[in-house]
């Protein structure tokens, strides 16, 4: 099996698992799960986030969900490796929900149900079948509901606070076109990425081990790239399944660029270490940059470039917004 087949492709990876972590909730109909709570037995506090808490049962249920939907090896060592990423993600969700509340942005059960219906349709499943799959895998509806609610809330925050402030000038587009002219004849790469940064909470060995585990699952075909990226990546495009888009010379780390030059379209690159962390890169496509002002439809090109710049800035500013929320929040890890 080659790498392209092993990744199961972006379009045909086992659909249930591609979307399982990021959007599967409340599949028992239109019942509200907002009032349900996880098992309160022997409850302890894992983390305090301003006026909210994350409990041990919430954390354990999330770990279970991640391991089920990502098909990672179910052993204590892997659970230990992924624990810090999961707890950080749960802290981010608390901050996202708090910011939405501060701005008066609510997420209704109806909105979540509508989103679920769309996802079930994309996965060619009816809601009852979806619900049965969740039940079989022991995935908590409450855990999923909280995650999806945070995602919807954060989208609303971005739409209100960031998108109106994205400004793209003619000079921005002209500079990007000039770059295309300079790079004409060289290769560019359509990539997706899972980025695991170095941090103070985890040893480098743990991050390397997690990167290798994720890579192994992708190569074996047991998990899809988009789902793992949504779950684990801390890089640009994580919410879109790790998709970065087309990159050219000088836009990625030298070690990544060197590996891309040797790879073929459809290849999954083994974890690459940079100064920032580990990168698992999927080379979706590769082509020679072509630019001929005599034959290029400039109106179309300028529109495409403007859209690319806008998406890049939106993603960058959304991540900066979340970092700012973290820097001003009271966050205490207790267990």
In words, what does this structure look like?
The protein has a four-stranded antiparallel sheet with strand order 4-3-6-5, with helices on both faces. The protein has a three-stranded antiparallel sheet with strand order 2-1-7. A hairpin with a 3-residue loop joins strand 5 and strand 6. The protein has twelve helices and seven strands. Helix content is 54%, strand content 13%. It has two domains: 163 residues, Orthogonal Bundle (Triger factor/SurA peptide-binding fold); 157 residues, Chitinase A, domain 3 (Roll). It is an alpha+beta fold and 335 residues long. The radius of gyration is 21 Å and the shape is globular.
Radius of gyration: 21 Å
Low-confidence region ranges: 1-37
Please state the structural category. Answer: alpha+beta
**Oligomeric state, counting identical vs distinct chains:** single chain
SSE diagram, text form:
Layout: H1 3-6, H2 15-23, E1 45-49, E2 52-55, H3 56-70, H4 76-102, H5 109-122, H6 127-137, H7 141-161, H8 170-183, E3 187-197, H9 204-220, H10 225-232, E4 243-247, H11 254-262, E5 272-273, E6 277-288, H12 298-328, E7 331-333
Antiparallel strand pairs: 1-2, 1-7, 3-4, 3-6, 5-6
Helix pairs in contact: 2-3, 2-10, 3-4, 4-7, 8-12
């Amino acid at each position: 099996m080659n790498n392209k087949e092993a990744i199961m492709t972006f379009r045909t990876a086992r659909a249930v698992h591609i979307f399982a972590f990021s959007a599967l909730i409340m599949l028992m109909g239109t019942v509200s799960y907002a009032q349900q709570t996880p098992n309160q037995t022997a409850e302890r506090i894992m983390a305090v986030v301003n006026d909210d808490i994350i409990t041990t049962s919430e954390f354990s249920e999330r770990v279970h969900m991640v391991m089920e939907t990502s098909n990672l090896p179910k052993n204590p060592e892997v659970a230990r490796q992924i624990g810090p990423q999961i707890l950080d993600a749960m802290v981010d969700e608390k901050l996202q929900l708090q910011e939405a509340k501060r701005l008066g942005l609510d997420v209704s059960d109806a909105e979540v149900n509508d989103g679920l219906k769309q996802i079930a349709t994309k996965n060619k499943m009816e809601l009852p079948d979806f619900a049965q799959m969740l039940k079989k895998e022991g995935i908590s509806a409450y855990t999923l509901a909280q995650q999806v609610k945070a995602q919807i809330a954060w989208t609303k925050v971005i739409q209100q606070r960031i998108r109106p402030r994205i400004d793209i000038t003619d000079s921005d587009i002209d500079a990007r076109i000039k770059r295309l002219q300079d790079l004409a004849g060289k290769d560019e790469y359509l990539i997706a990425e899972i980025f695991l940064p170095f941090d103070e909470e985890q040893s480098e060995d743990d991050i390397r081990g997690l990167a290798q585990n994720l890579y192994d699952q992708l190569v074996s075909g047991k998990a899809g790239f988009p789902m793992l990226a949504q779950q684990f990546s801390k890089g640009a495009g994580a919410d879109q399944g790790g998709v970065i888009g087309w990159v050219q010379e000088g836009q990625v780390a030298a070690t990544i660029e060197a590996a891309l030059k040797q790879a073929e379209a459809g290849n999954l690159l083994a974890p690459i270490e940079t100064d920032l962390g580990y990168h698992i890169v999927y080379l979706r496509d590769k082509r020679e940059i072509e630019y001929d002002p005599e034959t290029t439809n400039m109106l179309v090109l300028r529109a495409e470039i403007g859209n690319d710049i806008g998406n890049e800035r939106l993603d960058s500013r959304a991540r900066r917004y979340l970092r700012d929320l973290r820097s001003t929040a009271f966050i205490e890890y207790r267990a």
